[in-house]
Amino acid sequence: MTFLEFPYYIGYSLDKCCKLKQQKRLPNKVISIGNITVGGTGKTPATIAIAEEAKRRGFSPIILTRGYRGKVKGPVFVQQSRDTSPLHPFTSSSRLYGDEPVLMAERLKDVLIVKCADRYEGGMFALSSIHRFSHLPIIFILDDGFQHWRLYRDIDIVLIDGLNPFGNRRLLPIGPLREPLNELKRADIFVVTKTKNKALSDELGNINPDTPVYFSEYRVRKIMDMDGNEYPVEMLKDKNIYAFCGIANPDSFMQIVRSICGDVRGFKAYRDHYLYSQKDIIHLTQQCKVLNCDFLLTTEKDMVKIKEIQNSKFRVQNILYLEVDFCAESEFFDLIFKSILKGTKPL
Asked: Which reaction does this chain catalyze (predicted)?
């Protein structure tokens, strides 16, 4: 450990120790999805996939999220279930709730999503609001929860980018690690995302021999436009594209774009969680025209924010976005929900 990492490590250790002493436990099972690095491993698509699988298996999932950069402190519902009409109405806004919670709310129409920095408080808020209206067993899905010490988790799923697992293997602020790598011993399930990195799988086996390792990938389900019209993925094969995004790992987006598009003539990367302005969209549209491109193409997360800058005087056109799914082998989901039903740790 270098002297530049040491102050962060001291602060991290004190924070962890303090919050573990105050850790609370929700009355329902909690599945955490997290990582050990900052951003870019695909937690949001994974959270969506596990919530959808929970519904298929007869559970009523509730997602707990801090809603990064959302102005509302919470606890508050980002989206209420159609089956819980007695609850108060809401307005989805990335500025209020954060872009990722709003994305999840749009994809998961009948799943409750609660924004609150204290996920225990958010969970109890949800239970006090919906217990009279839910007839299915409730489970909580903790978004970005591996370092949320305040709340006990029944299953800790850790996602690791197979293309760039740990960067330079240094702690913040000179590297991407939120924690030392030996903290991966706490994980119950590893998921290597984006590519089948066998060397990484072997390394994880050395760090935590008892924890199963699964591989996942991200597949484009469909192409969408601003008005909700759907297009087949094959539509872009012979098109000229100008791509842009504001996510933690723009290279992974570009890898997907190049695999489905005819000619990517331009690309612009903004910082993660970037809030677009009308000026930004005008500039991108001009670049698209200069390079003789057919479409602007972006991510679902970015489109959440772009939709919100439209009004009667400013209409965004010619922008498409990719709807991407987290895909993992069925054994991964079987292990999660069998462990939940048995009340045991995954083995």
From this structure: a lipid A disaccharide + ATP = a lipid IVA + ADP + H(+)
Tell me if 42 is assigned to a ligand binding site: yes
- The verdict on whether residue 262 carries a ligand-binding annotation is no
CB-based contacts of 313, cutoff 8 Å, min separation 6: none
Q: What CATH topology corresponds to 6-217+327-342?
A: Rossmann fold (3.40.50)
Any binding-site annotation on 194?
Answer: no
What's the pTM? 0.92
44 annotated to a ligand binding site: yes
Beta strands 138-143 and 30-34 are: parallel
- Residues 64-120 pLDDT 10s: 999 988 888 889 999 643 444 344 444 448 989 999 999 999 999 889 999 999 999
91 annotated binding-site participant: no
220-324: same fold as 6-217+327-342?
yes
Q: The domain 220-324: what is its CATH number?
A: 3.40.50
- CA 126, 70, 36, 12 dihedral sign is negative
Is 211 annotated to bind ligand?
Answer: no
**Phi and psi based region of residue 49 (left: phi greater than 0; alpha: psi -120 to 50; beta: remaining):** alpha
Q: Is 43 labelled as part of a ligand binding site?
A: yes
CA–CA separation, 128 vs 246, rounded Å?
36
Question: Any idea where the domains of the chain sit in the sequence?
Answer: 6-217+327-342, 220-324
